[in-house]
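User: Fold this; tokens only.

Assistant: Input:
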Amino acid sequence: MLFNKKNNYYDKLLLLTFFEYMFKKGGNEMRKNRLYLLFIVVIVLSLFCVTPLLAKYFHNEKNNFGVESPEFYFNSDLLEIPQTNGVYPQYKLNDGETTISFKLKNYLDEFRFSNIDIKYVVKITGEVERTEEGIITGGSINDVIVEFNDLTTGTYKVEVNTVSPYNVTLKADFIIKEEDDAFTYTVNDAIGSSIIQVIITTNAYEGKLNIEWPANVLPDNTDELLKDAIGKNNFFINVSENAEYSLIFLKQDVDQVYSKTDIKVFK
């Protein structure tokens, strides 16, 4: 330390003597040189005082940034953050499916991932209510698969909230439909007819239907639904609910009469 606090009086006396010497002794040229010397001394002393303060400031700022701005990413393959108008995704499961499954992730891509652990809570409400908690480990790309099994028919709301370090909410609705075998079909044929007409009424069914026919029956290649079935004796079509479809098949033997025993439609 340049000055001793215990000898404050003598320090001041020494400083006054120094300034008196700098400005009163010698000629103008000498006083001018001493003034330059004094200026340099003041600059050097200022640097000694200010530099530690600046170093401490930058160190503190660096530490604050590391605590307040960690890398944080949290998203899902199906759930989303609700829009400002409250809208979020809704999904319909295929008939017969009773499991809701989705993925929670701590990354956006291979370069951007959370460097901290993420605690989350998943809640599903509807015909049943369940809650699950978990942690996605940070520091690398990680994800978890959340599943709710053996669910009954109905609409389920799924909400995921992060507990720490930040609050993020993801949502989605899932609709489980009852497996419906209510579609019907008829096979219209007669002796002497060169064609067979198959009429499918879907009622509440929506999805895939399989069709099989005998080898001596040919699908009509002018039918939009059957144009890719040429050369086959089975095919599938996608149907919508509450719709009716008419399919035409060509007979090689007009005296043969075909029924639902010969031409089958099933899921």
